[in-house]
Structure prediction request, 460 residues.
Amino acid sequence: MERKLPTRLLLEEKELPRSWYNINAIMKDKHEPMLNPKTLKPCTEEELSEVFCSELVKQELNMTDEYIPIPDEVMDFYKMVRPAPLIRAYCLEKVLGTPAEIYYKFEGNNTSGSHKLNSAIAQAYYAKKQGLTTLTTETGAGQWGTALSMACAYYGMDLTVYMVKCSAEQKPFRRAVMRTYDANVIPSPSTTTEAGRKILAEYPDTVGSLGCAISEAIETAKSKENCKYVLGSVLDYVVLHQSIIGLETKIALEKYGVEPDVLISCVGGGSNFGGFIAPFLKDKINGTKNYKIIGVEPESCPSLTRGRYAYDYGDTGKTTPLMKMYTLGNGFMPVSSHSGGLRYHGLNSALSKLYHDGYFEAVTVKQTEIFDAAVKFAKSEGILPAPESSHSIKVAIDEALKCKQTGEKKKIVFCLTGTGYFDLKAYTAFKDNEMQDYTPTEEDLAKGFATIPDIPQNRK
Ligand SMILES: *Cc1c(COP(=O)(O)O)cnc(C)c1O
Prediction:
């Protein structure tokens, strides 16, 4: 095969973006605001600042500035791990025998092993600047907890991480990395909080969920001095920080003269997907480009494809503000799967609105299918992908194989969010043919939907 482009579409440090990209500023119809569950009125800046850092609250509520400058101190850290490489998957293309061009943005090139560091470092910076000393958070698969541990260690802050119990058990070494960076890691549900004790009383055998760990982290943040809760996904400000992924991708594609046709990434809380597509959305919204944009979710936790568009709590303990989003219900208990980062009942409000308005499509894939794709990718591209990221690989391969049928030379770009070194138990299960797929029944979903609050806004 003739190679017109280099394998790595490199950027120099001076080409790095200096601002994040705010999709809320360019959306013609804004998403509905977060509501205070007690008053059912939009949350004010003051209310949100009780739980979150003030600067992050400002970013969360910013519906007007398209570009928000990245502080120099954050830029200094970014420069150590960024730009993340954009790689042409020549070898995978060859294995597939497709005329399509496949590109991936690789976000796993740092110790945390995922894109989550992009927001962790920004959040720890703003917290430090505000004079806070301690942060609390939750982690599913462990990538967010690891990223925040690194960020807190860098800025000299204390951190308590509530780690979803099944992940803590599946991935003891994740916990070891977090502890290396001095984080206090507690498997959730735990007996250290009211929320945890309540869930344990109701479901003694639960393997935990992100929603439940969030409740515990918020409760702890509220009970400590100089302590706030930070979140690794779902909120608009996290999507904002992750726009660094899409901005770099866009700059590199333009530099090398590549016009993308298909953009793909996996959707958990929506942060990498939102950040990845952010700078491409403007043309899509204005109708000047017709990118095919695909969000990929696990069949076992199908918030977009089978969820309801409604106001719901972000956590099982119903402690967060209400967010309008595609949701399976805050009480939906996803089965234990190997893609911990995607086991969340809802997703970001802006993305939910964009999906509702038809700006992108969503597909679900089965766990065994994604590991099949992961192994194919690992063999040809030399990177062991995270199970979450393998959702995107699976769909990118499917799109490339469609091109094989039609002869189209589409340019497919996906986000490879992280590496799978801590997911080897999952790879082992796959290799031993012990991995199972699970599709929630209508009954499972009905149970989750029953936990969506019955408020007037949801009855319209
Ligand atoms: C957390 C995580 C995801 C999903 O989270 P989003 O907020 O939806 O991006 C995807 N991939 C990896 C590797 C992750 O760690």
